[in-house]
Design goal:
- With about 325 residues, the chain is α/β, with parallel strands linked by helices.
- It has two domains: about 5-160, Rossmann fold, CATH 3.40.50; about 170-290, N-(1-d-carboxylethyl)-l-norvaline Dehydrogenase, domain 2 (Orthogonal Bundle), CATH 1.10.1040.
- It is built from 16 helices and nine strands.
- It has a six-stranded parallel sheet with strand order 3-2-1-4-5-6.
- The longest helix is centred in the middle third of the chain and has 29 residues, at about 165-190.
- The radius of gyration is 24 Å and the shape is elongated.
Length: about 325
């Protein structure tokens, strides 16, 4: 077993830390809000006062934070990871921050310290069960050294040299954000065409969107989205995709459209809702959110209206 430091105990970092602790590793943790470390400390982890203290004497230092600014804050400066890590330690950067942030981290780490970038695909449930997909960039020999530890978290896949993990995560995220945007627009189209929600979901479950349609149906119909992944973070990830595409000279029209839905929802204070709530946002702002019972009432009124009256109404519409 190894002496492991985990920096950042948010929804994902805390679950990663617990799995590593349960595997018998000696665990040191740090989080800006110290109280978030209490449960892990009660189970045997050590709480450090600073990221530098957490990294000192650790064989591997895992960082898992919100964005590039947070990564820079915990790694640089007199109390940052860089000030404490040394020897033959390895830093494993598991946040979704993009390749530029990984390159910056590589440039400030002391000589002799190894670095892997290993962002994950999955949410809280996958982190708890150890079924995350882990995209790893870095030297093959360093990946092989830490593959057993990463396997405790899920399925690690070596995708290339340093920075490749971050690039792979952006590629994956471009499909996730785009898929849920397309699903929302498909449901809006179904409403506009007068197709019932039940029929729409049944149809979509038989298309390339089938997995997402089945997965999101219950939450959508209940209008209850458990906050597994905040919309504001999905927007952050979408913006990383957009920035990377621009830097590469690539035009991503579908990804940009999906990002704009997230941006509009976030601007309307939906940021703390689960990102799947963007489905409701799309329908609400398509102006087509007519509950099925209201549509049934309209259909019934049409059925009860005398034929002559309906013909007169239709003629009036034609004359307009």
């Amino acid at each position: 077993m190894s002496r492991v430091a985990v920096i950042g105990l948010g929804a994902m970092g805390s679950r990663v830390a617990r799995r590593l602790l349960d595997a018998g590793n000696e665990l040191v943790v740090w989080n800006r809000t110290a109280a978030k470390a209490s449960e892990l400390v009660a189970e045997g982890a050590t709480r450090a006062d600073t990221p530098a203290a957490a990294a000192r004497d650790a064989e591997v230092v895992i960082t898992m934070v919100t964005d590039p600014a947070a990564l820079q804050e915990i790694t640089e400066g007199p109390d940052g990871v860089v000030a404490g890590v040394g020897g033959s330690a390895t830093a494993i950067e598991m946040s979704t921050v993009g390749p530029d942030a990984v390159a910056r981290l590589a440039s400030v780490l002391p000589d002799g310290v190894g670095l892997l970038d290993a962002p994950v695909l999955g949410s809280r449930a996958e982190a708890e069960s150890g079924s995350l997909y882990v995209f790893v960039g870095g030297p093959p020999e360093l990946f092989e050294r830490w593959q057993p530890l990463l396997s405790r978290l899920g399925s690690p896949l070596h995708v290339g040299p340093l920075g490749s993990g971050a690039r792979a995560k952006l590629v994956a995220n471009s499909t996730l954000v785009g898929t849920i945007g397309v699903l929302g627009e498909a449901l809006a189209l179904a409403d506009g065409l007068g197709l019932s929600r039940d029929a729409a979901f049944d149809v979509l479950s038989r298309t390339a969107l089938g997995e997402q349609a089945k997965r999101r149906r219950e939450a959508f119909e209940a209008d209850d989205y458990p906050p597994r992944f905040p919309l504001r973070l999905a927007l952050k990830d979408a913006e990383l995709v957009s920035a990377a595409a621009r830097a590469s000279g690539i035009e991503l029209r579908l990804s940009e459209a999906a990002r704009s839905w997230l941006a509009d929802a976030d601007a309307a204070s939906w940021g703390e809702r689960d990102y799947a709530a963007v489905l409701a946002w799309i329908l609400e702002n398509a102006g087509l959110d007519v509950p099925d019972e209201k549509q049934d009432e309209r259909d019934q009124q049409d059925d009860e209206q005398p034929i002559a009256d309906r013909e007169a109404t239709d003629q009036g519409k034609d004359d307009q």
